[in-house]
């Protein structure tokens, strides 16, 4: 297991980058705690796989260093980093049985035969392939082969880190939840440092202790699922996390009040004067339909999703989403919205602003 330090790390695929825009991975300075499970979450092209490949040694960064437990491994080959990596598509030995595939990393390191047998049986059960252990990998389905890849990545107990690059892409949807649960169980049992790349917020939020949200080559927030939901550090986090994402409205902020189109919105806390693009962000869960007061909206449709209703509305061309209880009646006169004051976030130039006097909160671009 290892603490992973990213020190002034950045990468460009261009030979002579001249501006920040030339970098696929913009400067990062972070310590990832030994033994925690992290999910790298973001849309395609945001730099997730680039960062994972730098950590694994498949790619050397354009600048900066990467350290495992304070040992500089920036240019160390993958074999010297003592990691296991599982890729998006299955990598298995077709001529070997499932048992032989799972045993290969242990036998390659001279592990005792009885330990190999016990560990392979344990992992085979974990991935739901006990009955297929003596089958050749050739001819198995893509999701079965990916389960073998996952098992082979997890079979070693002595690795510095386990790296997963969108490993459940080809897995049957009914199996995804079970495998995520098994990965989480494995982490709790053995305490490996785990890094899991995904664009699926459900995978990230259910797997990780801390979610690392990336946008345009940057880490914009590292936090628990609750922190990402309640206090998104960047408007992208608010938009990307949640279904539907956070409502964002341009506003002027005056102390403990936001003003939108002449309507005052209580904030529940005071804020210093802000410049540039100022917005408030409120989750649909904390947005209420009312018949009086608040902001006027145009209701477009109501979607009943079983657990609750999603009301799709707009405020002068800006989409607004409201989550209403399943049994809540939505009257024809309910065409205004209010917000839970304590749940309103303020953003300046896309970064969350901490209330005046708040302690231990990220301010501006800090993560």
UniProtKB/TrEMBL annotation:
Residue ranges of every copy of the ABC transporter domain listed in the record: 4-241
Cross-referenced InterPro entries: AAA+_ATPase, ABC_transporter-like_ATP-bd, ABC_transpr_FbpC, ABC_transpr_MalK/UgpC-like, Mo/tungstate-bd_C_term_dom, NA-bd_OB-fold, OB_MalK-like, P-loop_NTPase
Keywords, ordered alphabetically: ATP-binding, Cell membrane, Membrane, Nucleotide-binding, Transport
Listed Pfam families: ABC_tran, OB_MalK
UniProt-recorded Gene Ontology molecular function terms: ABC-type ferric iron transporter activity; ATP binding; ATP hydrolysis activity
Gene Ontology cellular component list: ATP-binding cassette (ABC) transporter complex, substrate-binding subunit-containing
Family as reported in the entry's similarity comment: Belongs to the ABC transporter superfamily.
Official protein name in the record: Carbohydrate ABC transporter ATP-binding protein, CUT1 family
The species this protein was found in: Aliiroseovarius sediminilitoris
